[in-house]
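dumping this here so i dont lose it
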């Protein structure tokens, strides 16, 4: 029978939860869960420890069919994905911590009748306050601070114990960390006791409920003020507060929140495991989607039948160069055009036929345009261009206005002279060049002779057939 796994990733503890058989969101039993807590030992990161723990759980418990991991924010989600990829684990899903907490509270019926819920999560590394629509699970507004945390409360207890004289100040970081763990344990035991005494190497940790409340009162009131401000900024009403996290076990916290918020405060049993249990209730098997086949090219290239196999192996019309086989891409390099690669890989008869297909056709219109261009070029070369252009002008004299702008550069042929720039301040008269009234000697026009009015007859040289080869006429 398959089972599911829910995981919560805290800054100091990673928790793995497995519900017992028949324990689901439809039929929830808060005690029917197997919970395993793993302490995070610096410098190890919580995300890496969670990925390793999930890998071990899946390897040792084959019946686990689905895994859900709760994450705090997008940054932690990214770190979890990277850690799971390093463990080569893909069959899991990520769920926001707030959504997992609301799922568990709804399954147990603790928030029945509450539509707008405030989730107050006081963990070891900070406080997160979120305003959530309990029906749609939509987070309307959320804020987080690290000024108030479970570690901060533990440090208050540690400093009070050292100041009392019963505990010697640790000499190194390891001693301070061990004393903090002892103070955290004393704080947790005070949730069900009025006083606690725990021995240590530095002395006896002695703490009463009254001492604890006097130490943490200002911090708890400050957190309640922050939660109230978050509700105001969210512009949503609050019908109840769900207090979770390890520090939610402190009896003083619920009393202060209710006094500051003015609504019911719900503290579930084992509030530090609520997120992991809600993740287990939301765990579903991950469906692996099949990879879609690569679409065929939209415009296939038409080649002879003998080259069909080459087109199927290589990308001729629309494939990427990286997908081409070695025989197609090694001749010209990565930057060569696809047509050059195809010619280099084709047989001689196929490459020649392809090159013939790409040869442009020469028709009578192209020859006519080419002849006219040659006529114009020869006319300009013989020096008749200025006279011809001058005939189109008016016979009146032209007046030139001097300018101070630099002379323009021209790209005309060397045979055409450019008039010098006028530098005088006074206006000067530009006289048109004298017209050539001489009549050229008559010439008998030949088959290649063109006569243009105003120009001497121009003989077009005969173009050899080899310059523009025509395709052979089809044989009938």
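and the seq i came up w/
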């Amino acid at each position: 029978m398959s089972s599911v796994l829910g995981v919560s990733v805290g800054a100091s503890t990673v928790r793995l939860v497995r519900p017992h058989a028949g324990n689901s969101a439809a039929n929830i039993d808060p005690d029917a869960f197997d919970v395993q807590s793993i302490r995070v030992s610096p410098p190890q990161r919580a995300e890496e420890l969670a990925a390793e723990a999930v890998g071990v759980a899946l390897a040792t418990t084959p019946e686990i069919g689905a895994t859900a991991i709760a994450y705090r924010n997008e940054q932690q989600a990214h770190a979890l994905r990277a850690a799971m990829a390093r463990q080569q684990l893909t069959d899991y899903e990520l769920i926001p911590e707030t959504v997992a907490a609301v799922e568990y509270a709804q399954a147990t019926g603790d928030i029945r009748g509450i539509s707008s819920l405030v989730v107050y999560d006081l963990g070891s590394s900070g406080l997160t306050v979120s305003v959530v629509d309990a029906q749609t699970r939509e987070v309307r507004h959320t804020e987080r601070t690290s000024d108030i945390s479970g570690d901060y409360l533990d440090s208050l207890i540690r400093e009070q114990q050292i100041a009392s004289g019963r505990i010697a100040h640790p000499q190194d970081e390891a001693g301070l960390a061990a004393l903090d763990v002892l103070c955290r344990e004393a704080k947790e035991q005070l949730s069900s006791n009025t006083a606690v005494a725990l021995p240590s190497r530095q002395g006896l940790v002695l703490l009463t409920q009254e001492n604890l409340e006097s130490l943490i009162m200002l911090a708890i009131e400050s957190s309640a003020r922050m939660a109230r401000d978050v509700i105001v900024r969210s512009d949503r009403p609050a019908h109840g507060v769900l207090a979770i996290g390890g520090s939610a076990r402190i009896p003083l916290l619920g009393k202060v929140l209710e006094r500051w918020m003015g609504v019911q405060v719900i503290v579930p049993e084992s509030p530090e495991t609520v997120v992991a249990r809600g993740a287990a209730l939301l765990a579903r098997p991950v469906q692996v989607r099949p990879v879609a086949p690569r679409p065929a090219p939209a415009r296939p290239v038409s080649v002879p039948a003998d080259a069909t196999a080459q087109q199927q192996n290589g990308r001729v019309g629309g494939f990427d160069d990286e997908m081409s086989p070695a025989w197609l891409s090694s001749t010209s390099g990565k930057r060569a055009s696809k047509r050059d690669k195809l010619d280099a890989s084709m047989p001689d008869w196929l490459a020649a036929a392809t090159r013939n297909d790409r040869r442009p056709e020469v028709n009578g219109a192209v020859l006519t345009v080419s002849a006219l261009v040659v006529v114009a070029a020869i006319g300009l070369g013989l020096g008749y261009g200025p006279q011809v252009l001058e005939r189109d002008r008016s016979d009146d004299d032209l007046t030139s206005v001097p300018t101070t702008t630099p002379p323009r550069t021209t790209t005309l042929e060397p045979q055409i002279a450019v008039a010098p720039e006028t530098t005088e301040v006074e206006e000067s008269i530009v006289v048109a060049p004298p017209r050539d009234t001489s009549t050229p000697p008559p010439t008998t026009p030949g088959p290649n002779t063109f006569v243009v009015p105003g120009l001497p007859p121009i003989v077009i040289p005969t173009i050899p057939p080899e310059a523009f080869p025509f395709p052979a006429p089809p044989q009938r």
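The first strand starts at residue 3 and ends at 9.
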